[in-house]
Amino acid sequence: MGQRNGHTSEEMQKLLINREREFFTGNKYEQDSIKRNIRYWEHERGLDKLFLYCDPTEE
Questions:
Q1: Is the pLDDT assigned to residue 4 strictly greater than 50?
Q2: Mean pLDDT, range 18-26, rounded to an integer
Q3: Predicted TM-score of the model (pTM)
Q4: d(CA 15, CA 22)
């Protein structure tokens, strides 16, 4: 739920809250649809890349 704090627009916050509610109260098919949309939006914005950072001083 921390995701919605990063958006300044009240309209965007309401949209994210509604999506969260739909995800948690929806059936399996609605949840899968929301997941698919999230993956699409992340891919379009290049947010689906995984970055690993290595700190050689860590043991």
A1: no
A2: 85
A3: 0.53
A4: 11
User: Is pLDDT above 60 for 49?
Assistant: yes
Q: Please give the Cα distance from 12 to 39 (Å, whole number).
A: 18
Among the listed residues 8, 9, 5, the one whose alpha carbon sits nearest the alpha carbon of residue 20:
5
Q: Which amino acid is residue 10, in one-letter code?
A: E
Cα 37 to Cα 35: distance, rounded to the nearest angstrom: 5
16-49 burial, b if ≥16 CB within 10 A, otherwise e? beebeeeeeeeeeeeeeeeeeeeeeeeeeeeeee
Per the structure block, which two tokens stand in for 29? 């098919």
